[in-house]
Design goal:
Blueprint lengths: L12 H17 L1 H9 L4 H10 L8 H13 L3 H16 L1 H6 L3 H9 L8 H18 L9
Length: 147
């Protein structure tokens, strides 16, 4: 389906599929983070729905959003496919902080208020770099997430 075709229809099935794909991807990339969030009953839908719905626009300063979206435009299926790797890279980037949180509320506060507001262009470039590494590490694994 085309980008956004079913993202903004009733029940937003396109976004829900992307959130599920992120969960499957993270479970393979960093099982410890995935299990830790499960242990404290953090559902990906509770934080990643916004990440998918707004393409991280609320999580990043505007200058970083512009830089990241420029990368999306350069990538085949950047907004629909590469964005998953960016979101996974965010979880890996804050792995230590996620694992240090020992309750649901602490994890949700972290995941809904990522410490990115002081990022400059380098922050978004590093995020894109981590995302590319994840994409290429899993590119030949046909079951790394279900598209």
């Amino acid at each position: 389906k085309a980008l956004c075709e079913d993202n903004y229809t009733f029940a937003q099935p396109g976004i829900q599929r992307k959130v599920k794909a992120l969960e499957e991807l993270v479970s393979r990339i960093d099982e410890s983070v995935h299990r830790h969030m499960q242990q404290y009953e953090v559902e990906y839908l509770q934080f990643a729905f916004r990440w998918m719905n707004n393409l991280l626009m609320r999580e990043l300063p505007l200058r970083c959003t512009i830089r990241l979206w420029d990368t999306y435009q350069a990538e085949p299926e950047g907004f629909s496919h590469f964005h998953l790797y960016v979101c996974a890279a965010f979880l890996v980037r804050w792995r230590k902080e996620i694992l240090e949180e020992r309750d649901f509320q602490g994890q949700m506060i972290l995941l809904q208020n990522l410490p990115t507001m002081h990022w400059g262009q380098r922050g978004s470039e590093r995020a894109a770099g981590r995302s590319y590494r994840l994409k290429f590490a899993f590119a030949d694994a046909p079951n790394h997430y279900k598209r």
